[in-house]
Amino acid sequence: MYNKGNINYLSVLWLLICQVAIISCRNNNHQTSALFTKLSGEETGIHFSNTITENDSVNLITDEYAYMGSGIGVGDFNNDGLPDLFFGGSQTGCKLYLNLGNHKFRDITKSSGIATNVWCTGISIVDINNDGYPDIYVCVSGYAPAGKRKNLLFINNHNLTFTESAAEYGLADTSYSTQAVLLDYDKDGRMDMYLVNHEIHPRVSQNDIVKPDTSGHSIRSDKLYRNMGNLPGTNHPFFKDVSLSAGIKDDGYGLGVVVSDFNNDGWPDIYVTNDYLGNDLLWINNKNGTFTNIIGESLAHQSYSSMGVDAADINNDGLPDIASLDMQPEDNYRKKMMYSFMTYPRYESERRAGYQPEFMRNMLQLNRGVQQKGDTAVPYFSEIGQLAGISSTDWSWSVLMADFENSGNKDIYVTNGMGRDLINADFINFRAGTYGTGNTLERERTLRNHLASLDSVPLRNYYFHNNGNYTFSNESVAAGFTEPSISNGAVYVDLDNDGDLDLVTNNINQEASVYINNTIRNGKQNTSNHFLNFSLKGDSLNRNGFGAKVILWSKGTMQMLEENPVRGYASSVDQRLHFGLGNITHPDSAVVIWPNEKRQVLKHLFIDTTIVLDESHASVINKNTLPAKAAPLFKNITDVLHLDYTHKETFFNDFAFNSLLPQKYSQLGPFISTGDVNGDGLTDFFVGGAFKQSGKIFIQQKDGSFKGKDLVSGPKYEEDMQSALVDVDGDHDLDLIVVSGSDEFNEGSKYYIPRLYLNDGKGNFTLSPAAFPSQVNTIGQSLSITGGNGNGPLRIFIGGRVSLRYPYSPQSFLLEYRNGSFVDITEEVCPALSNAGMISSSVWTDFDGDGQMDLVIAGEWMPLRFFKGENGKLKEVTESTGLKNNNGMWRSLLAVDLDGDGDMDLIAGNLGENNPYGVTENTPLEMYAKDFEGNGTIIPIIAYYIPDKDGVKKLEVGANLNQLAKVMPSLKNQFLKNEDFAKAGFNDILTNSRLEGALHLDCQELSSCWFENVGHGKFVKHVLPVEAQFAPVNAILVNDFDRDGKKDILVAGNEYQTEPMTGRYDASYGLFLKALGGGKFLPMKLADDGFFIKGDVKDLKLIKDHFGNDLILAAVNDQPLAIFECKKIEK
After folding, report:
1. Most-buried pick from 23, 263, 886, 960 (CB within 10 A)?
2. String of DSSP letters for 315-371
């Protein structure tokens, strides 16, 4: 039985009565297999339409926010147990609808005293005066003087009438406001308000690269209002603007806001999405009345024109994740019709101006836990929207993450549509042609007429089903979302109290949409969609418990929800916390953490009901009694060792020479090689340098420290790639071989020749200038070595990374050391290696167990290729390995007996699955390359499978007309308009005649994998866990790090040098894969294992220190070297 101190039985009984009564009356005419059924206005009584009528001041030419729309607020305004709805209006007045039950509503706007004649945007529902009845705060914008742009506060009079009282409360703000969110930021028990603002008719164009005004005096700056309590002689609180003293000083075009405890320190933080160039804001609460924006540290990149936002735990790890929206279309036609001004020079200009990286697509920021930075617990996020499958939903406004299927996982709903196609590429070109023509009014009228001719852009809303593995399935049509609309604000709310979440959207020029959830039908549910709701009753200053957190435990898994109803876009959702349970009938417990850090634990929970939680029954928990956190396995000791090394790139724009490259190839390093260079029994290491930077030798000292010295003095122009410490000349000390790379030099440059540095036995190295003949010249990266030291002749393989005729294969070399220099034996031993592909990694290993060394190579647009050693020669045997459809964008390779069966397995790092390509065996990524224009320039064209408007994936050219026409001017003659190009299929653009003689490459596998050696040269592929697919894997280590007798895997990577339309791959912070046995690996949480690297990691190496501890060396492009310690376990 329940503890009566935890549950309000009368409230539960009342809610159960309401639930049963409503379910019994539910309309049976809507039996459907779809998850949601749309009800008409005739059925619901809701006829609200946010009608926009264009005129000289309301249109997208003079005001780009003319169609920004408005939101919805959910509140039980008469406390009858039924959620009512408030709709915000732009040109039309707001409307209040009373829920009558059985999906019927009555418009009580007139009788309630709520009348608006201003441009309303965001709606916030809060019991602001703590009288037990919800009030309504309405944000106001629009092209009007400040005096007519005051925000509104409707105080509930307890009789379904309201009194506008914003001025009396100090909240009649006259900014261009988008949304307000209520939170107790200073933990004084009173609800404060954060106000998100934007601007109409700015003096500087919204996307001009100018320095933001962070004085706090920008008209666009958000505001923080502190609740000062009740003033003498009043019975309600008064709010004071404390923005400047609290550190709220920004200059963005704010569109969305959500409150959550992102760093799990018990204090509310704030995430704000900003439109246009301005970065989003992540305000971390400093616990002293101030905030710090740490967006650049916590997030690797953001949406470009961020719109709606929500925060929820999508993977049930107890950490709030973030979804933000942008305007990237899903289908090929809309993609090709969307204009983008982004080029690499602009991208770099934005970075130099101080803006954080932004890309035009939806983002799903996965919360990976916190790292302590001084006094601040900094949360770090991995952006996985493309892997998740939610990155492209067109011109989107609201995003809501909730469990719509009662499965135990949170699904995603996105609203969509735009009044005019403002970023239509042909319209942008037309607009550019009108500059300098006629007077301003005439030009604006011409543009308005042309834009109007393109008509509105109603779009289908999106519904994504959570697959439970970080991915989502687009089930919009199956879920019942088939009707195009221009939908802005949206809410989830259990309108009929039946235990599933319904959806309501605020539409432009169309009646509001009411979608009834069919998960539970007619009061009946199957065994896989149980639920449990919580209704919060806070103290006298926070009646609804805003900021409270509820954690539900069931069979060792957890779900977490926070009471912060403002979310999505301009809206406030149902304040009841809804947990789906799936087939669970006996949840273990619920832990409630109130804003004042009081806690209560509930056990023996009933299901399929609503429980009222009362803060008065909670108690303060002594934090010292909480279990101590285990010490992490890895510890960053970079600062302890004081290593004086930072990799420093010199800027080079690869795209200026080939604008269609998928990435820059001038920033591929640094790499590390290890060995005892001075014969003292301690492991030393070398880390390569960039252009105009010497590599560095680090000699380990007996006290565990390292002493560094430059490899060379004076000018040094080579870009160091992979290296190796090996006894080349047989004098029993380790010499150094360094491969040269980068595409910043001319073909045949002497800076592409590998280098040999001979060791004097004391760790001093001297260049051997004649060691490599001049014809051994390639843009290299990979280096692998076999033989030497009495094990046959010393042979090295140098893999060419790229050629200056990308993507044609560069030359690779197999070399043998003879009489003081290396001899090219490629044609003699294995001619197939000469042009074997764009090789990133290679390894010598005996993969077939015959005692002879074999060679495996990996690279871009190629499979792993296997070359069997036969009496000094190499023969390719890739076809006989059993691996099929294995072409990938391979980046790293390691041979190791991973499963302990005595033969050598392989681990191969790939591009990963967090990209736009959706690669499978049936939908490969393809590339076509040729001198299409006959001018001597090779043009590489990527193609991949993109949905058409019906969702059917077809092979399409990846670039838009503007991108292609820059390098293929002939296309402009064929396609005069972007629309012509967008309607053309792959074969219309790359015709048979154009493709004649073209190089064709493809890849069917982008996952990082391990390949199990099953004997006799045969392998079986195993995809690594999905966490290893978040980003490219550039570096791999294997060791029994936790000393449990099984070999674990450590991986790191990222790729910051991608072309800016695709956006960089940066979701990895390193990953520890704990071996479970049987070829299974468990991804460990970043916050728990201590292995955390932020940056573009290129290499990992493992050495021992003087005390026997494992040291992991991490080489990061354009950043300092990082070192982690993994202490040995004393027995």
Report:
1. 263
2. SSSS--EEEE-----SSHHHHHHB-----HHHHHHHHHTTPPPEESS-EEEEEEEEE
How far is residue 225's CA from residue 1044's CA, in Å, rounded to a whole number? 54
Both tokens assigned to 1082: 């468990």
Q: What is the mean pLDDT of residues 232-256?
A: 96
CA distances from 23 to 367, 514, 870 (A): 38, 17, 77
Query: For the segment 178-221, what is each residue's pLDDT rounded down to a tens digit?
Result: 999 999 999 999 999 999 999 998 888 888 889 899 999 999 99
Q: What is the pLDDT of residue 11?
A: 43
- Identify the bridge partners of residue 303 per DSSP, sorted by sequence position: 359
- Using CA atoms, how far apart are residues 913 and 1031, in angstroms rounded to an integer? 7
- How close are the terminal C-alpha atoms of the chain, in Å? 48
With contact defined as beta carbons under 8 Å apart, do 519 and 529 qualify?
Answer: yes
Using alpha carbons, list the distances in angstroms from residue 10 to 85, 133, 535, 1101: 25, 19, 13, 64
Torsion angles phi and psi, residue 60, rounded to 5: -75, -10
My answer on whether omega of the bond before 670 falls inside 30° of 0, hence cis, is yes
Is the confidence at residue 20, as pLDDT, over 70? no
CA distances, 246 to each of 139, 185, 251, 260, 290 (Å): 22, 10, 15, 18, 4
SS3 content of the chain, % helix, strand, coil (to 5): 15, 40, 50
Grade residue 638 by pLDDT with cuts at 50, 70 and 90. Answer: very high
pLDDT exceeds cutoff 80 at 22: no
Burial tier of 147 (Cβ tally within 10 Å: 0-12, 13-18, 19+):
exposed
Query: Do 362 and 392 touch, CB atoms closer than 8 A?
Result: yes
Q: For tokens 């990308």, what's the residue?
A: 806
User: pLDDT at residue 5 above 70?
Assistant: no
If DSSP codes are grouped into helix, strand and coil, which group holds residue 696?
strand
18 contact partners, CB below 8 Å, separation of at least 6? 80, 81, 82, 497
| pLDDT for the residue numbered 340 | 86
Predicted pLDDT of residue 921 = 96
Report the C-alpha gap between 946 and 953 in whole angstroms.
Answer: 5
Q: Check if the beta carbon of residue 838 is closer than 8 Å to that of residue 802.
A: yes
CA distance 269 to 262: 6
Q: Which pLDDT band, with edges at 50, 70 and 90, does 14 fall under?
A: very low
Spatial strand order of the sheet with 672-675 comes to 672-675, 684-687, 696-700, 706-710
> Coil, strand, or helix at residue 458?
coil
Structure tokens at 538: 């806070």
Cα–Cα distance, 190 to 637 (Å, whole number): 43
Give yes or no for a cis peptide into 212 (omega within 30° of 0): no
d(CA 719, CA 691): 5
Query: Alpha-carbon distance 786 to 680, whole Å?
Result: 24
Burial class (CB in 10 A: 0-12, 13-18, 19+), 615: buried
Pairing of strands 684-687, 696-700: antiparallel
Largest pairwise CA distance in the chain: 101
- Side chain identity at residue 508, one-letter code: I
User: Which residue from 527, 415, 520, 474 is spatially nearest to 35, judged by alpha carbons?
Assistant: 520
Token pair of 533, please? 């709701």
Q: What is the pLDDT of residue 521?
A: 80
CB 305 within 8 A of CB 362: no
Rounded to an integer, what distance in angstroms lies between the CA atom of residue 836 and that of residue 831?
9
Which candidate, 251, 184, 242, 185, places its Cα nearest to that of 222? 251
- Nearest alpha-carbon partner for 494 in 583, 609, 324, 412: 609
> In this model, does residue 171 exceed pLDDT 50?
yes
Supply the DSSP string of 619-685, one letter for each residue.
EE--GGGSPPPPPPS-EE-HHHHT---B--PPP--GGGT-TT-SB-SS-----EEEE-SSSSSS-EE
